[in-house]
Amino acid sequence: MILVVDFGGQTAHLIFRRVREFGVEAKIVSPEEILPLRQTQGQNDIRVKGIILSGGPSSVYEKNAPTIDPKIFSLGIPILGICYGLQLTAYLLGGKVVSGKKEYGPAELKISNFKFQISNELPQQFIVWMSHGDEVISLPKGFETIGSTEHVPFAFVEDSKRKIIGLQFHPEVEHTEFGRIILENFVKICKLSVNPKEIDIRSIEKDVEEKVGDSYVIGAVSGGVDSAVAGILTAKAIGDRFIPIYVDNGLMRKGTEEHVKRIFSQHANINPIVINAVGETISKLKGITDSEEKRKIIGNFYIEIFEKEMKKLQNSKKDVKFLLQGTIYSDVIESQGTKHAAKIKSHHNVGALPKNMKLKLLEPLRHFYKDEVRAIGQKLGLPDEFINKQPFPGPGYAVRIRGEVTKERLIMERQADDIVLEELKKANILDKVFLSFPVLTNAFSTAVKGDGRHFGEVVALRVVESKDVMTSTWARLPYDVLQKISSRIVNEVPNVSRVVYDITTKPPATMEWE
Ligand code: XMP
């Protein structure tokens, strides 16, 4: 197996996923676990054929920065250090790292040295994705440069004698071209064979059956792909002991309720319970402007509603113990999923849940990514138009309205959203992008409307392309489509003065603004 040492990087689990996709066994371990694991001299020890050191939010010079026993470098096992993993390797072996050389997003890598197996089948030049605050400025003895970018001379390095490879960029993210080839080459350097495997749906269903036993499960279904796939999977596993519930909180897109009903009646023969919580949600959000607070209020209220439903069902002799959620791994890691990871935002279904909730969580998709969930949905027979539907965040329009969510601003947001959806659909673009939405920015600017001065809100348009959610680029929309959207929003949505297009990649910017 290959060990992935997790220094708290957002994509440490994604590295694990890539290795697993090659059909190679992998295990995520914390830096503190790795040497004791070797020193046990037990079964596990002998089976470790390679070690990958992940990225992480720390700087090697920080007090309490996670580190690793340098003895691992003399075990004779191939080691791949990615980002922080490379910086730590260089630092521990006598190289130099500097802080504050930040770079986020795409960069062009040029390979200058094709001597080693790690660069097999790579072209001379390709795009890689960076996300780092520090950089190696002097290599430890024994290392040679394989490739560089404009700003990073030691972007791709190797000490061939000790079989240590270092990458400043992230080969695991989908937007790094040829990232898979680099990882595949590393797997081969570890003398492991690559036999891609498919996701075993039956084993996920079996896990659900075992965990749930004879009890009932209520399911939070939002109309999105994740909760629907989790729901249909659970219905297949436990039949009508699964009860889907859709909460209309007034923050969802038009038509969501009908969509949820259709999916569950057609594909699981179940009619979801629908709860109207529009008025209460808006009043709970009154006066709240902080994005994390909004998420927490929505997460908490959500659980309140489900616990009430649990009691009602228990009164009618249904032993409800679990709440099913369509949580996926990107929700988990952004809400701070591992020991050394930084918190990016509290996804309403993970980091924004109350601590004292009575229902136990059932999250069969917690270790999967969006594209894997879509593949599972396809295997379950869900229609393509449903599987490829844009994701919509649980806190809905509340995180697309900067500042206070009021009835008036919700109407503006919804109107602008409908315009964007309509125009992208007309242009045949809607199902080709990952997400599209307008943001009410809470910034104001001057406009001239009908010869008069107008001081209205700035709407930011965000349209992104992604597969696994961990990285994204902005969609290169045709100018005439951008023009149409902009004109319609400033003309049709009251109190809007201008439209700007958000051209920031993730990283550094998350897809949603809040
Ligand atoms: P970010 O903004 O984190 O978005 O790059 C990644 C994906 O997650 C969705 N998102 C959420 N989904 N609850 C959800 O169910 C949340 O609190 C939440 N926040 C972001 C976002 O729409 C995108 O698909």
Layout of SSEs?
Elements: E1 2-5, H1 12-21, E2 26-29, H2 34-39, H3 43-47, E3 50-53, E4 79-82, H4 84-92, E5 96-111, E6 125-138, E7 144-148, E8 156-159, E9 164-167, H5 179-189, H6 201-212, E10 216-220, H7 225-238, E11 242-248, H8 256-268, E12 273-276, H9 278-284, H10 291-315, E13 320-324, H11 329-334, E14 360-362, H12 370-379, H13 384-387, H14 407-426, E15 435-449, E16 452-465, E17 473-474, H15 479-492, E18 496-501
Parallel strand pairs: 1-2, 1-3, 3-4, 4-9, 10-11, 10-13, 11-12, 13-14, 16-18
Antiparallel strand pairs: 5-6, 5-7, 7-8, 8-9, 15-16, 16-17
Helix pairs in contact: 6-7, 7-8, 7-12, 14-15
The structure holds xanthosine-5'-monophosphate.
Keywords, please?
single chain; alpha/beta; Rossmann fold; GMP Synthetase, Chain A, domain 3; 3 domains; nine-stranded mixed sheet; five-stranded parallel sheet; 15 helices; binds xanthosine-5'-monophosphate
Radius of gyration: 25 Å
Biggest sheet, in brief?
Answer: 9 strands, mixed
The first-level CATH class of the largest domain is given as Alpha Beta
The SS-based structural class is alpha/beta
Task: State the separation between the terminal residues, measured CA to CA.
Answer: 39 Å
Per the CATH scheme, the topology name of the largest domain is Rossmann fold
* Tally of individual domains: 3
In what range is the share of β-strand residues? 15-25%
Instruction: Count every beta strand, where a strand is a DSSP E run of 2 or more residues.
Output: 18
Question: What would you say the CATH architecture of the largest domain is?
Answer: 3-Layer(aba) Sandwich
CATH superfamily label of the largest domain: Class I glutamine amidotransferase (GATase) domain
Q: Outline the low-pLDDT stretches.
A: none
Q: What oligomeric state best describes the polypeptide chains here? A: single chain
Shape: globular
Portion in helices: 25-40%
Mean pLDDT: 94
Number of helices: 15
Ions, cofactors and other bound molecules: xanthosine-5'-monophosphate
Q: Going across the major beta sheet, what is the strand order? A: 2-1-3-4-9-8-7-5-6
